[in-house]
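Researcher: I'm preparing a figure for a lab meeting and need a structural model of a single chain. I don't have an experimental structure, so a prediction will have to do for now. The sequence is pasted below. Please return the structure as tokens so I can convert it later.
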Amino acid sequence: MNKVSVIILTYNFDKFVQETIDSVLRQTYKNIEIIISDDGSTDKTPEILLDYANKYPKLIKLVLNKVNSGVAFNFNQAYLIATGEYLATLSGDDLMYPDKLKKQVDLMEHNDNCVVCHHDAIVFDSTTKEKKGLFSQIYGPGKNIKAKGDFKLKFDPGARMLPSTFMYRKIACPATGHDERLGVMAEMAFDVEVALKGNICYIDEALGAYRRHDKNITNILATNISM
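Model: Understood. Here is the structure written out token by token.
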């Protein structure tokens, strides 16, 4: 069983991050490491993360940045210490369903040319917990949500993929991670570089949940630029 490095990025997520971490701890695929990088939170997020790191010292690696430096920098702090053959990314306010990692690893193990794998997700309201529907249904009319193919998908305005559903084959990823000079576009550039080395695959199943609230960055990214 190849190891999966699960990278969780947090910033002022004290209301959500416990659910996020617990969803990773419940994974049926057990050969994992959890790397949490916090981007200078000013709420109780660092305290919560320290509690988890102390409780699971062999499983959780924690990076607490003192200054808020942006998503690309925060990602790199976790990425550069990841040791898994696969890399799964998760925002500190979203959730994984128990079989998510297992199903993604199974697909990638049987498809050597698959370097990026993503899937559908349930969208739910953060306040009421009400399920709003599938990501593919809500953001999908007229769009290529269930995108699979080569790197050209990353330049298709309709190919809207949710970053919290991604799994990468680590060997295909750029050694230095995200280019911090590119700001919010660093993730797209990273994805293009990975996809140049193989195919983007899709699992037509909701293997996670996307929390919708007024501050989530992934909502802005998913609705305004091709991820």
